[in-house]
Each structure stands twice: as structure tokens, then as C-alpha cells.
Amino acid sequence: MVVAALGILINGFSAWLLMAGQRGDLNIRGAFLHMVADAAVSAAVVAAAALILLTGWNWIDPAISLAVCAVIVWSTWGLLKDSVRMSLDAVPPGIDAAAVRTYLEQLAGVAQLHDLHVWPMSTTETALTCHLVMPAGHPGDAFLLRTADELKRRFAIGHATIQIETSELTVCALSPDDVV
User: Fold this and answer.
1) What's the CATH number where 115 sits?
2) Final residue belonging to a domain, choices 87, 119, 148
3) Which H helix or E strand runs over 166?
4) Are 11 and 39 contacting, i.e. CB atoms less than 8 angstroms apart?
5) Last residue of a domain, which of 69, 87, 105?
6) How confident is the model at residue 72 (pLDDT cuts 50, 70, 90)?
């Protein structure tokens, strides 16, 4: 019980240190949940041991173990979903792909947008690639820099690769509505 009580203090303090960073970073959230789970397991060990000492009911130990397992599975489900989503290069949950599409389509000189892809590069960085059809010609580097800056400011997309095409003949097989 004494070792488990120390585990509550140490793991609880570690979780407290990680609490602020766990909202925006999947790795820190995983470490935070691990520390919280360890603290909870230690608390369950202390509670189960105390109840067994008071009552003599040995069945409390496996019952508490099953309850701890259920809590851990429930609390880590979101982490599993987010990590699978990231591994599949899905559009990050905080990015509105339709709003990104609308912003790019409404840029001056853009006749068509295709091959728009938005995906997480890491737990804190997002990338975008797209093709903009601009029949009047390439608008220059200032346009690309301004667009990349605006994507970062509006949508937190820090790595944008924009390909300018002057003819709709170069459009790939994807529909203009496809976003991957």
C-alpha cells in the first residue's frame, strides 16, 4: 500500500506537468493518459488493499482490476482514434476542408482547384498540396507566399505546396470535389 501510495503521488505529479500540453499534441496526450492511468491503478491498489484488509473479501482484487481495465480502455479510445486517423493521413480534426477549398477557389485568378490534399505531418504540423488552374498565367512568388501565409493564419496549415497550372488540360483524374 505504501509503494502504491507513492505511485499516486509521483504519477499524479507527472500527469499534472503534462496536463497543459496534452491538448495540442498527440504524443503528450498519450504520455498524460499513461501517467493518469498509472496513478489510477495505484489508487485502485490502495483502495482494494484497504477493503480486503477490512473485510477479508479477496474477490475485490480482481473486481477492481477489471474496473481499472475498463476505465483505461474508455479513456484511451480517443487517443487510438486520433492516432489511426493520423496514420491514414486523414484531414486533421481541427481543419475544415470545405473552408480551405472555398478560400483557395476564391483567390483572384483561380478558375479551378483540383488535387487538394490536407494531412497531418506530425501531431502539431499540417501540410497541404493542391493544383490551382490559373489561365492568365503564373501570378508570381508574392501570390504563393501570401497564400501560404494566409493558409497558416486561417487554418493552421504550415506546409503548403501549391502548383499553378495555366490550362485545364493538365487536370488530373480526380473530381474538383475530391479532398484527401
Assistant:
1) 3.30.70.1350
2) 87
3) none
4) yes
5) 87
6) confident
**Which pLDDT score is estimated for 175?**
53
Query: Do residues 163 and 132 lie in contact, with contact meaning Cβ atoms separated by under 8 Å?
Result: yes
Which of 19-33, 93-107, 122-136, 144-158 is the least confident region?
19-33
Model pTM score: 0.61
Report the alpha-carbon distance of residue 71 to residue 79 in Å, rounded. 14
Rounded-to-integer distance, Cα 121 and Cα 164, Å: 23
Q: Using the 8-state DSSP alphabet, how is residue 179 labeled?
A: B
Structural domain for 75, as ranges: 2-87
pLDDT of 152 > 90? The answer is yes
CA angle, 26 then 19 then 14, to 5°: 105
